[in-house]
Amino acid sequence: MTARAIPDKYTHRYPDDLDTVIAAVASDEGLSGASPEVRRYELALQVFFKAKIAIAVSSGAAAISTALFAAGVGAGDEVILAPTPPLCTVFPVLAERAIPVFADTAPDHWGADPVSVAKMLTPKTKAIIDTLMWGYPAPVDEMYDFAKANRIPYILDLAHAHGTTLHGESIADFCDLACYSTHDRKPLSTGEGGFVLVADETVADAARAYTRFGNLDGETFGQNYKLNGVAAALGRSRLKYLAAKIETRRENAARLLAAIRHPNVRESDVIPGGQPNYYAVLLRLDFGLPAQNRAFIDYLSAAGIPSDITRYGCRPLYESPTLAAFCRPCPNAEALLSSTTTLPVHPDVTADDIDYMAEVINAYPG
Ligand SMILES: *Cc1c(COP(=O)(O)O)cnc(C)c1O
Fold first, then answer.
1. Which of 162, 211, 249, 330 could bridge to 225 as Cys pair (CB 3.0-4.6 Å)?
2. CA distances from 161 to 90, 170, 274, 363 (A)
3. How many A from CA of 135 to the centre of ligand 1?
């Protein structure tokens, strides 16, 4: 077993990238967010995700801010979410001057738990956000029903989850507004970028207006969150490869999971009817105390196997100084965070890499 360094992210490179960028720059359409190329990209997104309306924006964070605004969230309103996502999910809540209210997860998956959410509802609750961590599905169908019954907009942060399905349908079908990132680390990359999928035309109009200064009519507030023309051209071109790249992730995950045989390591539960896109493989660790799980993650890191847990801390959001004022301990979420790690299975990971990762894991003396 020779040590190696498994790359922690996929390097996006596609045969027609250069021609696409050159054609965009050479065209007479201009490169602003108002260029027809952005509209063509949005139409391609609608087809790929079988969505009614797609709105391209400049980042995943912009997508979440836009969704919150379009959902009617404003100053002093409350937005319920689990404390498990990265800071990128919750800072847009603060940017919209709303109050993040932390609800616990269920013990075994990353969605907010409806029982915990129900306890946190107040007349000021104006949205619920769920984040599909590493592309693993959560029971968003149940949460969507709950949200509808309480007339609260339900927003999904699908920055990791391009291609994730539930009951055979796109996970984005189970919410009012679906937010995606196309940052360079994500399954579809435009460098920086994102988009919002929405079915309701009135909500979509509000979302689109928000991304262009409220259409500059001075009646409604807005920001400039438009995606530029070069990024849109690249996105439309790269969308052609996305389904195959997700398939490769799934194949890599299947090979890796079939080879892992360690009594204290298993795949995180996949809910019935759900299919992850395998943005990463999620492992549940059972070595005892959090420090013992952490020792296993450090062992993998030392062997050149990277983990998102070491990359961004993966502590409950309310432990961050910027969010301490909203602290509300969530024991299930804390247990999840301290017993989870990720393994890379992106398309740059080779069969040899996969066999190596399984060997290293199986050799751990836990
Ligand atoms: C990347 C990410 C975001 C933010 O996307 P940007 O395009 O970087 O702004 C939001 N939520 C999650 C879960 C992410 O992984």
1. 211
2. 17, 10, 12, 31
3. 12
* Number of helices and strands in the chain (H, E): 12, 13
| Cα–Cα distance measured from residue 157 to residue 172, given in angstroms and rounded to the nearest whole number | 9
Token pair 């490169």 is found at 31
Give the up-direction half-sphere exposure of residue 33: CA atoms within 13 A in the CB hemisphere: 19
Question: What pLDDT score does 1 carry?
Answer: 61
Query: Edge-to-edge, what's the strand order for the sheet holding 169-170?
Result: 169-170, 165-166, 274-275
280 CA distance to ligand 1 centroid (A)? 15
Can you tell me the distance from the alpha carbon of 104 to that of 174, in angstroms, rounded to the nearest whole number?
20
In DSSP notation, 222-244 reads --B-BPPHHHHHHHHHHHHHHHH
With a CB cutoff of 8 Å and minimum separation 6, the contacts of 242 are 48, 162, 163, 187, 188
pLDDT tens digits, one per residue of 22-81: 999 999 999 999 999 999 999 999 999 999 999 999 999 999 999 999 999 999 999 999
The pLDDT of residue 2 is 67
The C-alpha angle 347, 14, 64, rounded to 5 degrees, equals 75
Which of 64, 68, 88 to mutate for ligand 1's pocket (most ligand atoms within 8 Å of CB)? 88
Which residue, among 131, 148, 125, 126, has the nearest Cα to 90 in the 3D structure? Answer: 131
Is this prediction's pTM over 0.70?
A: yes
- Cα 345 from Cα 239, distance rounded (Å): 19
Q: Given CA atoms 166, 170, 171, 174 in this order, what sign does their dihedral have?
A: negative
| 203 SS3 class | helix
